[in-house]
Amino acid sequence: MIQVGDALPAVTLAEYSEVEGNGCSLGPNPVDVTQAAAGKTLAIFAVPGAFTPTCSAKHVPSYLQNADALKAAGVDEIWCLSVNDAFVMGAWARDQKTEGKIRMLADGDAAFAKAVGLTLDLNGKGLGLRSNRYSMLVKDGKVVTLNVEAPAKFEVSDGATMLAQAKA
């Protein structure tokens, strides 16, 4: 499992864009993690799935509620990762109204989740391989804090905890 001090994995995520601009075409666009994290402070949180109850009702809203305070504390971007495709993440972004606050990034084949050692096997529940629920504060591509949830819990990876860590 990834640890404090480790670099983020060199994988590519995907982001759905509904508006052309800033070098991004419409539709899914690749996001090279190493390039996207370089020189930035990131609040990254991962969820087992888009549109799932805890993720939609608690996890994403906790970051939306703290987005301005996180930016004031020095966080350049907030990333939400999920093992879903970019189209689903785009629809979830619209549903959660995250535009301009949280980048909703698809880890479609679980490459990031596997590389950081934080996968969650939900095959018996019909959901396949997913990401564990966690958050991390990252500076210039290196993990500064890591908050991994126990199974079926939502206690340490919320936006308020990340805000306290970003302020520390």
Automatic annotation (TrEMBL):
Reaction catalysed by this chain? a hydroperoxide + 2 glutathione = an alcohol + glutathione disulfide + H2O
* GO terms of molecular function: thioredoxin peroxidase activity
Name of the top EC class for this enzyme: oxidoreductase
UniProt EC number: 1.11.1.27
Q: Where do the catalytic residues lie?
A: C55
Q: Which GO terms describe its biological process?
A: cell redox homeostasis; cellular response to oxidative stress; hydrogen peroxide catabolic process
| Gene Ontology cellular component annotations, sorted alphabetically | cytoplasm
In which domain of life is the source organism classified?
Bacteria
In what residue span(s) does the Thioredoxin domain sit?
2-168
- Which Pfam family is one of this chain's hits? Redoxin
Family membership: Belongs to the peroxiredoxin family. Prx5 subfamily.
Extract the PANTHER family matched here. PEROXIREDOXIN, PEROXIREDOXIN-5, MITOCHONDRIAL
Question: What does it do?
Answer: Thiol-specific peroxidase that catalyzes the reduction of hydrogen peroxide and organic hydroperoxides to water and alcohols, respectively. Plays a role in cell protection against oxidative stress by detoxifying peroxides.
Q: What protein am I looking at? A: Glutathione-dependent peroxiredoxin
